[in-house]
Amino acid sequence: MLWSDPENEPPKELRDMQDMLRRLSVFLALAMVLAMIVIGLR
Q1: Which residues contact 18 (CB under 8 A, 6 or more apart)?
Q2: Which residue in 17, 23, 15 sits closest to 31, CA to CA?
Q3: Cβ contacts of residue 24 below 8 Å, gap of 6+?
Q4: How far apart are the first and last CA of the chain?
Q5: How many CA atoms within 13 Å lie on the side-chain side of 30?
Q6: pLDDT computed for residue 6 by the predictor
Q7: How far is CA 34 from CA 2, 12, 23, in A?
Q8: C-beta atoms surrounding 41 within 10 Å
Q9: Where are its TM segments located (predicted)?
């Protein structure tokens, strides 16, 4: 890491995309749990 390197701050679009992916992964995990429960109840 050089002193002349820019700050390790990703651009806004990248941060927004990471935020959206995080939300999507949480939603997918919840959907999987719900699906397991529904399959288990049958």
Answers
A1: 10
A2: 23
A3: none
A4: 56
A5: 6
A6: 66
A7: 48, 33, 17
A8: 6
A9: 20-41
pLDDT digits (tens, 9 = 90+) for 1-42: 566 666 777 789 999 999 999 999 999 999 999 999 999 997
d(CA 19, CA 35): 24
Distance CA 31, CA 28 (A): 5
Nearest CA to 20 out of 8, 32, 28, 30 is that of: 28
**At residue 32, what is the residue type?**
M
Q: Which two tokens stand for residue 18?
A: 């990471």
pLDDT of residue 8: 75
Looking at the whole model, is its pTM more than 0.70?
A: no
